[in-house]
Amino acid sequence: MNVDSQASFDNILISVIGEISNRSEPSRKFVQTFVLAEQPNGYYVLNDIFRYLVDEEEEIEQEEAAPAAAP
Fold this sequence. Notes:
By secondary structure, this protein is mainly beta. The chain has one helix at 56-65, and strands at residues 2-8, 11-20, 28-39, 42-52.
């Protein structure tokens, strides 16, 4: 997992790249970017973007599984 952060005005911008797994499912790569805004008793998530990344192998499997387009 990689985590980068940077101060931005009164907030903190954080970017995370890693893998996540749910129970016995295979792990999936993801990227998440969010902004932590300060409040009196800590921080809260102001904005959040989460996206799964598709491996080249996974993309090829999806293309092969897709039905062929009709002429």
